[in-house]
Specification:
Strand content: 15-25%
CATH superfamily of the domain at 39-237: Galactose-binding lectin
Largest sheet: 6 strands, antiparallel
Helix content: 10-25%
Distance between the termini: 39 Å
CATH class of the domain at 39-237: Mainly Beta
Number of strands: 25
Shape: globular
CATH architecture of the domain at 39-237: Sandwich
Radius of gyration: 25 Å
Number of helices: 13
């Protein structure tokens, strides 16, 4: 990903639920599936069938348990009461599906769950197969067929586990009409690794919080939303174009969908009132550090310090700082037009619907670009975000609206470190690239607003001589940064789950100021890979997405609804704040991806704002709640 300069933006300017059971009624899965088939399509998406037969389980012995008890509630044979125990790492129950159930025919599995306890619970669910071990809970590299609910005491909500598929499972005619999209209307969600849906045998409900006992009621385990791809006839007659002039999916509706330019103007005016009513926290200094907290040594740049048993970032004025960030804050969200012209009612310049909508929203003002980037900063400060994380317009805000930022640099080696790694040659080439081709690096090296540098993203490791090569790599990067940017933090290489490597973490602990991970999971407390290494850690990427606001794919971690998406987000950050080691969490990303996807096929509902620049209100409310308690919670008060 790349940032875009104000000059190029100005040139462009001038060239131009998922729903659940309520009151006993099944509501349709909306947002991505409805199309010109009209009522028939609605009917398919609200279709449901029992996924298991609780009433026929006479003695409940077919339900496997781990540190859990299962019983029937008094007076009901259609429900279960479950106690998940406090002693084990993962207390769980495995509920068998009905024999012969064809999950191939469905979009999701839904379960109504009530919290019977006196504290908030964080419950996960996963479909799995007894006979297929290619996807198991213990394999952190895979996170499919999973969902989560956060429930307050006495609350009932619906967990929805969305079912992903291989591209090869689509009928051949679909390839003629859909290209380059991981999510496709009709209920298709593509993942890299999948289990044949016919293999699934059980639904597992589990918690990953030892030391606490949770009690819940489970009922109506069902399939929801019939898998119903558009027919060949529909695609050849009335489906296209399926993207409206604003870049939204045309054939359905949802709360907040833009119908006309006046909606954009009205949203801008409403947000101005909202930002005025929700200013930056009085307890923060200009950097977003804790003005009301302890005064530590001020160096004029960001640094790290272990204070009262917890690792912290320290801002240039010597205040404790937790980096609450968002990646990819900018002005663009591009999709490919060429070869797919029939998809679109309107074809914006360079396929950039987000920029086109911003131009409309700000009505082409002469200082449009500066207005937009400064508005992004005002938003983030109001929301409780104090960091422009990687791939953001971090150096293009007015002085008044600046925020601390991070930059991700490339070392020049893509993917995996080679087995014949030459440390001296690598060091010389990396140094030359920073001096010759990265003017923003040279500026950032002197800029007090720059927290530091990640070098590489989701780095892979050699297959031989791992310790020698990995240590040499991190040592070489450290030496170059010490020479060219001695006041900046070296933030590691953003390891992801498929590349978690103990040797690499040990090398980061020796040569980096902060270790870093991209951690796409529901819980941070389950991350154990750096145990025993007394070093700060930052989360460079994570996200959660739902299907109830107009996109066809959830992203790498799914949520049943926008309400639950915001709750899971808050839970994730709160776990980080309670950690002794984690010094920041950076959400990926600022804007929902385009329905017709970015270049690699991702069309995820993962933004704080949508393609029309409308903030998702549930996420904003959750972020503001985090803002209120961020420093006091982390400090331990």
């Amino acid at each position: 990903m790349k940032t875009i300069s104000l000059v190029s933006v100005c040139v462009s300017v001038f060239l131009l639920s998922a729903s659940w059971r309520t009151a006993g009624q099944v509501q349709p899965l909306r947002g991505t599936f409805v199309n010109p088939a009209g009522a028939a399509w609605d009917e398919a998406m609200q279709a449901t069938a029992p996924a298991t037969d609780l009433a026929s389980m006479k003695n409940l012995k077919s339900i496997r348990t781990q540190d859990a008890l299962v019983k029937r509630p008094r007076g009901s044979r259609e429900a279960l009461e479950i106690s998940l125990g406090a002693s084990s790492e993962k207390a769980s129950v495995d509920i068998p599906f009905k024999p012969g159930l064809r999950l191939d025919d469905w979009v999701s599995v839904a379960i109504d769950i009530t919290n019977l306890g006196q504290e908030r619970i964080y419950l996960e669910g996963q479909c799995f197969s007894d006979g297929d071990q290619s996807l198991v809970l213990e394999n952190g590299a895979y996170f499919y067929y999973r969902s989560m609910l956060v429930l307050e005491p006495g609350e009932t909500d619906t967990m929805i586990v969305f079912l992903s598929r291989d591209m090869e499972s689509m009928p051949a005619y679909m390839y003629d009409h859909f290209q380059g999209m991981f999510g496709i209307p009709g209920g298709f969600l593509r993942r890299k690794v999948n289990v044949p849906l016919s293999h699934f045998t059980h639904l597992r409900l589990f918690k990953q919080f030892p030391g606490r006992e949770w009690k819940l009621r489970v009922e109506d385990i069902r399939t929801l939303g019939r898998y119903n791809l558009p027919s060949r006839e529909l695609l050849e007659t009335s489906f296209f174009p399926f993207i409206d002039r604003f870049g939204q999916y045309k054939w359905t509706d949802w709360d907040g969908k833009v119908k006309r330019p006046e909606d954009l103007y009205a949203q801008r005016e409403a947000e101005e009132r909202d930002l005025a009513a929700n200013p930056v926290s009085d307890s923060w200094d200009k950097w977003g550090g804790w003005k009301d907290g302890p005064q530590l040594r001020a160096t004029g740049h960001f640094r790290v310090e272990k204070y009262n048993g917890k690792w912290w970032l320290v801002d240039p004025d010597g205040h404790l700082f937790f980096s609450q960030g968002i990646c990819g804050v900018g002005l663009t969200q591009v999709t490919r037009i060429q070869g797919r012209e029939k998809y679109f009612e309107y074809k914006p310049l360079n396929g950039d619907f987000y920029l086109s909508n911003l131009i409309t929203k700000f009505q082409g003002a002469p200082d449009f670009a500066m207005q937009v980037v400064d508005n992004a900063s005002r938003r983030m400060k109001s929301w409780g975000i104090n960091t422009m994380a990687s791939w953001s317009l971090n150096d293009q805000f007015s002085e008044e609206q600046r925020l601390p930022y991070t930059i991700t640099l490339s070392s020049g080696i893509r993917d995996r470190l080679p087995d014949d790694f030459d440390a001296a040659a690598f060091k010389a080439a990396f140094r030359e690239s920073l001096l010759a081709g990265r003017s923003n690096f040279l500026l950032a090296a002197q800029d007090p607003w720059c927290i530091g540098f990640f070098v590489d993203n989701e780095r892979g490791w050699p297959t031989v001589n791992q310790r020698e090569i990995i240590y040499a790599y991190f040592k070489a990067v450290r030496e170059v940064l010490d020479e060219l940017a001695p006041d900046k933090l070296y933030l590691g290489c953003r390891s992801n789950s498929v590349n978690f490597n103990r040797i690499a973490f040990e090398a980061q602990a020796e040569y980096c100021d902060v270790m870093s991970i991209n951690h796409y999971d529901y819980n941070l407390s389950t991350f154990k890979e750096t145990e025993g290494l007394d070093k700060p850690l930052i989360v460079g990427e994570y996200h959660f997405g739902a299907l109830d606001r107009g996109l066809a794919h959830t992203g790498l971690r799914t949520a049943p609804s926008q309400k639950q998406r915001a709750r899971i987000y808050r839970h994730f950050v709160e776990e980080a704040l309670e950690s002794d080691y984690i010094v920041g969490t950076h959400w990926f990303q600022y804007v929902d991806q385009c329905f017709t996807a970015r270049s690699d096929g991702e069309n995820y509902q993962i933004g704080f704002v949508d393609i029309c620049d409308r903030p998702h209100p549930e996420m904003i409310a959750a972020s503001r709640e985090i803002k209120k308690e961020m420093y006091t919670l982390r400090y331990g008060r």
